[in-house]
Amino acid sequence: MFGLELHHRDATRFRRLMHRAQEKRQTGFTFDFSETKFAAPVAMAQLVVQAEACRRAGMHFDVIEPLNRETRSIFRAANWAHHLSPVNYEPNRKFPKDWLPVVRYATDTDLRRLVDATCSVLLRRARIRRQALHGLEWAPNEMADNVFQHAESAHGGLAAVTVAAQRRRVQFVVADAGRGIPATMRTGHSGLGSDLTAVKYALRQGITRSRKIGAGNGLAGTLRIALAAEGSFMVHSARALVRVSAEEPTPDEQQFRAVDRLDGTVVYFEMGIDREFDLEEALLQDGIGIGHWDYLDAAYNPDEQHIRLRVTDEVTSTATRVAAKPLRRLSRNLVFAHPTSKVIIDFGGISSITASFADEVVGKLLVSLGPGRFRGRVLLDGLDEPLVRGQVQRALSQRAAEAEAAEAARLSKKPRRRA
Question: Which residues, listed in sequence order, are joined to residue 269 by a DSSP beta bridge?
Fold first, then answer.
């Protein structure tokens, strides 16, 4: 039975139990989450990877779901229950606009869909700097691509994304039940000793098992991005565990440890989404390449003069603030991401909206951007219906004084230039 909270260290203990069950040739194992109220994605990824490896040896697993209703719904919706016991639980294949289930990817198309969905969720759930969004695209693509190139996993990889908007963080876990980094590295570097030595070697820039397969940039670059964005990085493969964070960037024995065996690889990457950092400096210092075309370019056509957001495409309802908030965040993020384009919020095709919806989308956006930037960068279109036009105009007029005061306060805080 698992306790109230399940973290990385707790998963290690239960992996040990799975190993013992496998050594005793037991055919079954039950995960009892009845008392669990919180489960960290990185811990769940370890359990899934080990369970998958044990299933290859003929074992099967059952799951006792959490009694806590919210946690139980997360286990089902996020696919943890399915990945631990695929026979008993159907997968959730939905990709809603504001959260992501845990998914398995086996092709480049699967991976592209996952990364795009992650960027889309972030743009709607939190204020995010473009450099952070670009770094978030780069790192998961490189991490996940290692599964294609090196892991030789029969079922592809597993990816989990957590957007902690309140903490201004995004966390990404990539896992697979393949051969593991040490075994992979030894095919090209036979002199490597322990698993820990092999993983530490793999984290060096330009190191790969074969130059014909890759350039050795993925893990090294992901580590650099995590530290530049004041985040953290962890890789656990075979009997090696490496954990590095911006708070403790200097390696010590606690960050590089030999641990109990994991039959596969789990890579965890966390970064701050509002941190100022130079992505090119983080990656190019050792010659790691980086492209300048990103998700925003592909999704919102920056070569055009305007970026049009059709409200009917972006929201599920025009009645509540909850439905409006992602659109407002997306609009703001696009204003700052594309400084030379205007953002058009198109209300065409909508017959009515509530005062709350209008205030959340345009009223609060006016306050957030300030009157000057709002007038210069945001266009409101499709206001043909009198009810819609009236609610929008009312929201703007009610927030006008607040917006002027907020902008004046911001300007007063800016340091004056000396004559």
Answer: 172, 233
Tens-digit pLDDT profile for residues 106-118 = 777 887 787 888 8
Per-residue DSSP letter, 63: E
CB 153 within 8 A of CB 264: yes
Residue 83: CB atoms within 10 A of its CB come to 25
pLDDT at position 208 over 70:
no
pTM for this structure? Answer: 0.68
Residues contacting residue 89 through CB under 8 Å, at least 6 positions apart? 63, 76, 81, 82
CATH of 1-92, one of 3.30.390.50, 3.40.50.720, 3.30.750.24, 3.40.50.10900: 3.30.750.24
Q: What pLDDT is attached to residue 115?
A: 80
Q: Which residue has the tokens 């954990």?
A: 243
Q: What is the pLDDT of residue 11?
A: 81
Residue indicated by tokens 């390449």:
289
Asked if 178 and 267 count as a contact pair (C-beta separation under 8 A), the reply is no
Averaged pLDDT, 410-415: 72
Q: What is the mean pLDDT of the chain?
A: 80
Report whether 137 contacts 295 (CB < 8 A).
yes
Left, alpha or beta for 370 (phi > 0: left; psi -120 to 50: alpha)? left
Do residues 380 and 345 make contact, with C-beta atoms less than 8 angstroms apart?
A: yes
Q: Which CATH number fits domain 93-298: 3.40.50.620, 2.40.30.170, 3.30.565.10, 1.10.520.10?
A: 3.30.565.10
- Does the pLDDT of residue 135 top 90, yes or no? no
Q: Which of 68, 64, 3 is nearest to 28 (CA)?
A: 64
40: helix, strand or coil: coil
Beta-carbon contacts of 17 under 8 Å, excluding residues fewer than 6 positions away, are: 29
The pLDDT of residue 359: 94
User: Which tens digit of pLDDT belongs to each residue from 163-173?
Assistant: 776 778 888 88
Nearest Cα to Cα of residue 315 among 118, 96, 130: 96
How far apart are the two ends of the chain, measured CA to CA in Å? Answer: 69
